[in-house]
Amino acid sequence: MKIDIIAAGRLRKGPLFELLQEYERRLKWSLSIHEIESKHTAAAAIQQDEEAKILKQLSPGAFIIAMDERGQSLPSLDFAKKIGDLQTNGHSHLQFVIGGADGLTDTLRTQAGFLLSFGRQTWPHMLARVMLLEQIYRAQQILDGHPYHRE
Question: How many domains is the chain built from?
Fold first, then answer.
């Protein structure tokens, strides 16, 4: 399984960066993190610039999962099942997209095969990146039958 995380913003050194690195080390699946950044200052210009840069990172044939507050919130077991079902159906490359402070554009949401939400609360996008990687790692462990996840 090849996993890409395409995320707006640069995660600087610090506790979140170290936690992200920890989950990267644990993950057996191939992982690439693509950070995109806009130099604009107006919110609309930033969002459009992020859209263009994210679209350039999307790979033909990859299954796109966009992190979006309007998406479906899945318990960890269901998230693992979703990934397992995608694998079973021939999807060996998943790309997760995390927008910036103003979220994703409609264009990016329509490119996605699935919209995923971490609930109705608003999360800082840097924290959401770490939370996503932990859930990907957890899904890997669930699918492998490892006792990392407890119900």
Answer: 1
